[in-house]
Amino acid sequence: MTLADVRAVSAATLRRLERAAGDLAGASLSAMEERQPWFAALPADQRAGVLLVTRTGLSNFVAWLAEPDETLRLTAEAFRIAPRELARRLSLRQTVDLVRIATEVFEERLPPLAADDAEYRILVEAVLRFGREIAFAAATVYANAAETRGAWDARQEALVVDGVVRGDGGGVDDALVSRAAALGWDPAAAVRVIVGTPPDGGRRAEPAEVLSGMRRHATRLGRSVLTGVQGSRLVVLVTEPRGSIAADDRMPGDPTDPHSLAPIVADFGPGPVVVGPPAADLAAAHVSARDALAGLRAAPAWPDAPRPVAAADLLPERAVSGDPAALPLLVEAVVAPLTAAGGELLRTLAAYLEGGGALEACARTLFVHPNTVRYRLRRVSELTGRSAADPRDALVLRTALLAGRLAAVPPPAHGA
């Protein structure tokens, strides 16, 4: 049996319902304050907003009873008039609790206003439908708000990532820091920038789903992430856990390491993934982004590079690709500490590398004992973190020596 199968509620009953609407709304608010302590703690204007929504819902309910063939008009109309601050203050669970309380008050007080038993049955069924529809309406409103908020967050996130990548004015401005803070990012946290290709989508899930998984992985690692897909590249800003190794440029790659980036890197698409050096905070993250992007451009020159690879490990390739920051970084990482330790280490390294890595030949060139060469090469390794006997490290060290020699040559005079 439907409401339309019986008949419409009489005009006299409708008038009684209209006159009782104010009292019913007030009784609902009293019940909410009694049964939900948090509701009583709301500011007066927000409780008034709930009263307004309740009265609007009742008015729509009475109008529908007059024309039972029409669609129940309870959805967005009742909730659109709610103050914006109220919608932000109440969670969906809290809203559903209030709807349940109001429905119970209506179940108790509306049917006795019927003129006869037939109307009583109509009102009982109508109140049940009222509660169901308004609960669905609340869920729809919150879902739309969440979708809108998600779209806004995505735009803000893209703006922050783009601002870090561009590094306008040599850093990130206060507006971008404020946007990041609104997204729950700690602007004072140390940060790295990771770049690679976006998730391909066909491997496991849609790209947006994969990026959501990346955020979950980061949360489990005690990190926060901001992501931005810029054409064929994915840029990820990831915080360094407090007390981690953020003070240097070592990059954890062992999946057993609690600070490992491996779960985050796994969500990138195919191809190289490059990790920039740690930056002290978001305002300085443009340097990490610059190095990471330069490393990504140069990565094809090292096909056997690990995944992920630190931008600092791609300095030779970056120098060849024309990155202006690579040569000074090589000099700083290799030549500067060896020069500070004494000229013998630098001369020994050059003789060893230029002699093809032959220990005895190097010793003869320098007129020293081979053990002296061994000792000096160990000191080179201690100071630079690179072993001249390793082919990859030897490439880095040799490129650094070339960069140091170029840096020592004064630029040509104008017109020369």
Task: Give structural attributes.
416 residues; Arc Repressor Mutant, subunit A; 3 domains; five-stranded mixed β-sheet; 18 helices; 60% helix; 6% strand; rod-shaped; disordered N terminus
Secondary-structure topology with pairs:
Layout: H1 3-6, H2 11-35, H3 37-40, H4 44-66, H5 76-80, H6 84-89, H7 92-109, H8 117-166, H9 174-182, E1 191-196, H10 207-220, E2 225-230, E3 233-239, H11 262-265, E4 274-275, H12 285-298, E5 309-310, H13 315-320, H14 326-341, H15 343-354, H16 359-366, H17 370-384, H18 391-408
Parallel strand pairs: 4-5
Antiparallel strand pairs: 1-3, 1-4, 2-3
Helix pairs in contact: 2-4, 2-7, 7-8, 8-9, 8-12, 14-15, 14-18, 15-16, 15-17, 15-18, 16-17
Summarize the structure.
With 416 residues, the chain is mainly α. The protein has helices spanning 3-6, 11-35, 37-40, 44-66, 76-80, 84-89, 92-109, 117-166, 174-182, 207-220, 262-265, 285-298, 315-320, 326-341, 343-354, 359-366, 370-384, 391-408; strands at 191-196, 225-230, 233-239, 274-275, 309-310.
Q: How many helical stretches?
A: 18
Largest β sheet strand count, sense and barrel closure: 5 strands, mixed
What form results from the Cα inertia axes? rod-shaped
Mean of residue pLDDT values = 80
Question: What helical percentage do the residues reach?
Answer: 55-70%
SSE run:
HHHHHHHHHEHEEHEHEHHHHHH
Structural class: mainly alpha
Radius of gyration: 34 Å
List low-confidence stretches: 1-6, 250-259
Our measurement of the CA-to-CA distance between the termini, rounded to an integer number of angstroms, reads 101 Å
Determine the strand fraction and express it as a percent band: 5-15%
Structural domain count: 3
- The number of E-state strands comes to 5
Sequence of strands across the biggest β-sheet: 2-3-1-4-5
Protein name: Helix-turn-helix domain-containing protein
Organism: Pseudonocardia ailaonensis
Domain CdaR GGDEF-like: 170-298
InterPro entries: CdaR-like_regulators, CdaR_GGDEF, PucR_C-HTH_dom, PucR_C-HTH_sf
